[in-house]
């Protein structure tokens, strides 16, 4: 259960969860070992990102995969009747799942079945960039730089226990403002809020 949302949104999240379980039988959407605790491990964990944003806004979700956090953000936006999520996923089978997920839940989003490097031509600007379990921070910043570099956009990246070493490596190529948010779902995880990105 996700606290603080309407019954309609809760129903949409449940609809997504049911659809996910159905598709996950034939497509590797997340690690099988994490599926049993899906509500906490994936849905509630993804919802944290949306809560950290300071406005509704337009999102770019990189490597959307099984829909975390992109579809969850798009479902939560449906409460506001505003904002949008551009989900970037080059795997055609996963992109097909994401399209069905958005259509069946009435979520506010669009699927872009292209490589991340091609996405900036289709999505020239946004307010927020998100990613979860995609790449190390240095590489993520490279992927996200078309939307963040010298722009007022903000990134929210889920990171696990090795985030300090990722930060150290990233500081070799980038400078940025950083806020570390402790995950309320997983004790050894954080959400890195990154803004004012510059190359060093």
TrEMBL record:
GO molecular function terms here? rRNA (guanine-N7-)-methyltransferase activity
Kindly state which keywords UniProt assigns to this record, in alphabetical order. Answer: Cytoplasm, Methyltransferase, rRNA processing, S-adenosyl-L-methionine, Transferase
Catalytic activity of the protein: guanosine(527) in 16S rRNA + S-adenosyl-L-methionine = N(7)-methylguanosine(527) in 16S rRNA + S-adenosyl-L-homocysteine
- What InterPro entries does the entry give? rRNA_ssu_MeTfrase_G (IPR003682), SAM-dependent_MTases_sf (IPR029063)
Q: Where in the cell is it found?
A: Cytoplasm
GO CC term (a single one)? cytosol
| The protein's enzyme class | transferase
TM spans (from-to): none
State the Gene3D superfamilies in the record: Vaccinia Virus protein VP39
According to the UniProt entry, what is the EC number of this protein? 2.1.1.170
Residues that coordinate or bind S-adenosyl-L-methionine:
63, 68, 116-117, 132
- Name the protein family: Belongs to the methyltransferase superfamily. RNA methyltransferase RsmG family.
Q: Which NCBIfam families match?
A: rsmG_gidB
The task this protein performs is described as: Specifically methylates the N7 position of guanine in position 527 of 16S rRNA.
Listed HAMAP family: 16SrRNA_methyltr_G
Q: What is this protein called?
A: Ribosomal RNA small subunit methyltransferase G
Q: Which organism is it from?
A: Rhizobium wenxiniae
Top-down, what is the taxonomic lineage of the species of origin?
Answer: Bacteria, Pseudomonadati, Pseudomonadota, Alphaproteobacteria, Hyphomicrobiales
